[in-house]
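Sequence decides. Consider this:

===
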Amino acid sequence: DLSYNLLTSFSFTAGPLTALQDLDLHSNKLTSFTVTPWALPALTTLDLSYNLLTSFPVTPGALPALTPLDLSINKLISFTVIAGTLTALTTLDLSYNLLTSFSVTAGTLTALQDLDLRSNKLTSFIVTPGVLLALKTLKLFNNQLTSFLLTPGTLTALQNLDLHSNKLTSF
């Protein structure tokens, strides 16, 4: 537990903590977070909430066992997931950031069940077929969405959808 410190950056390369499962860095002053591929292969829980991160770069092979990821209450402007990353992730909290875009490509976030994007600056949310197939809960409230369009074959497992406090004119 490294929470409630004054850390401004965190960089981890392969080393002695290969069995580390939980890493709590919330409530610091992090502006940079970097983990090289396979540096933390057993890490399942990562809390980076209440920091100053503007980006969260993830390279293929980094954080392969991560299931919940909390990036809430940072300064993230965009969040892009590339193929082969965060494949075990089941919960992703990106609430209370400055996100204007959220991009997911096929073959990523395949296990994701809960996605929290509330209280950002999103104006659109586009899901292409074949992504977010396991998603059960989607929180998009308190954004600036003007439309929410679903095409056949998207969000087929969705059970809970919260879109209140947006600027929706079509659904």
